[in-house]
Specification:
Elements (H helix, E strand, L loop, with lengths): L1 H10 L4 H16 L25 E9 L4 H4 L5 H17 L4 E11 L5 H17 L3 E9 L9 E12 L14 E6 L8 H7 L6 H8 L10 H5 L7 H10 L4 E6 L4 H6 L7 E7 L6 H10 L3 H7 L4 E7 L1 H4 L10 E8 L7 E5 L3
Parallel strand pairs: 2-3, 7-10
Antiparallel strand pairs: 1-4, 2-4, 5-8, 5-9, 6-8, 7-9
Helix pairs in contact: 2-5, 4-5
């Protein structure tokens, strides 16, 4: 009877034996990211992590996905990169508070035909990014959801926890008039805007159709369309660690430029008494965004609201320290300044030749 029940469940779309074999591969990948603070291997009902070096720690958490970028992943053979994107996105989010990213968990919701190999490839990407960011992969969940996710369809979600000393937390409260804005260039679209990308190029989710379109060379791009669109979402951890280490009061605010573009993300960290003047008058947007705008017949205001426009992160820097560290800041893009907010003006004002 046990055998019949197992067969019946498998016929219903859930392969328990296959999932158990996959779990063993997950456990080995997770172990490759482990460190002395991890107190339990994969297997118990909860991950265990010890906070050892903090006097008054504040835990900073983030959860996110990669949106419909994952629908392009299979057609461009980028499942592993999607796993990396997921971790890097969450790392960048917790680092906006100046936190050290510590441990990560994942969730995969899977259709019945998503192969065990593909599942392992996704988690392999997560483990790779975890190792690169000194983050421990302490657990996760893969749920087989036949009828909810059809065939090879899936979704992935990441959960990351970091920590920062309370006195060193970056929360925007120290932002003052005269502080400078600096941009960190992105590597492309990161993980946002792919719903409209799919509509513009008639990508329907089928591998046959999408592969053909994504392998086409697009005018103005030095690659095929898929390569241009599917650049990885970078982690900015090493860069931020460098600036945080220079001086505790150098960075006063950090905005990760994701869905909603520059203005909507930057305003999340600007105190109501100030306005961030983002000066893009001399900024040349990368060619990829010009191609998207032309092909999709989009306006510049729409583009700036949807995409990061080539800027992955904006740092608000203490004006008094910018001169002292001008050599170190030379690799960033000067993007404006902070001024007093008069008459309840907008928190972020973008000045650009495109707007």
């Amino acid at each position: 009877m046990t055998e019949n029940k197992k067969d019946s469940y498998e016929l219903a779309g859930v392969d328990i034996d296959g999932a158990n074999e996959t779990l063993k591969a997950y456990a080995n990948l997770a172990k490759s990211t482990s460190n002395d603070n991890v107190l339990a291997d994969i297997g118990p009902f909860g991950g265990a992590f010890s906070l050892t070096k903090y006097k008054e720690p504040v835990l900073i958490s983030s959860t996110d996905g990669v949106g419909t970028k994952l629908l392009l992943a299979k057609s461009t053979n980028n499942l592993k990169m999607i796993g990396e994107d997921l971790v890097n996105h969450c790392v960048n989010d917790v680092m906006c508070a100046g936190a050290d990213p510590l441990f990560f968990l994942d969730y995969i919701g899977a259709g019945p035909k998503l192969s065990q190999a593909d599942r392992i490839e996704l988690v392999a990407g997560m483990a790779k990014a975890c190792s690169e960011n000194n983050v421990a992969l302490v657990g996760g969940e893969t749920a087989d959801l036949p009828d909810l996710y059809l065939n090879e369809a899936f979704d992935i979600v990441g959960f990351l926890v970091g920590a920062v000393e309370k006195e060193n937390m970056i929360d925007g409260k120290k932002i003052a008039e005269g502080d400078k804005l600096f941009g960190v260039p992105s590597n492309g679209l990161q993980t946002n805007g792919f719903s409209i990308i799919r509509k513009i190029w008639n990508l329907d989710g089928s591998i046959e159709n999408d592969s053909k379109i994504l392998n086409m060379n697009e005018k103005k791009l030095n690659s095929n369309l898929g390569e241009a669109l599917m650049q990885p979402h970078l982690s900015y951890k090493n860069l931020l660690d460098k600036y945080i280490a220079l001086d505790d009061d150098l960075i006063r605010g950090i905005a990760h430029i994701t869905g909603g573009g520059i203005a909507l993300n930057l305003e999340r960290i600007i105190p109501k008494d100030f306005t961030a003047i983002v000066d893009l008058k001399d900024y040349q947007i990368p060619v990829l965004y010009e191609v998207i705008m032309s092909k999709g017949d989009l306006s510049f205001p729409e583009m700036f609201k949807i995409f990061n426009m080539g800027i992955g992160m904006i740092l608000v820097m203490n004006n008094d320290l910018c001169t002292k560290y001008q050599d170190e800041l030379s690799q960033l893009l000067p993007l404006g300044h902070i001024k007093k907010n008069l008459n309840d003006a907008e928190l972020v004002h973008v000045e650009s030749k495109y707007l």
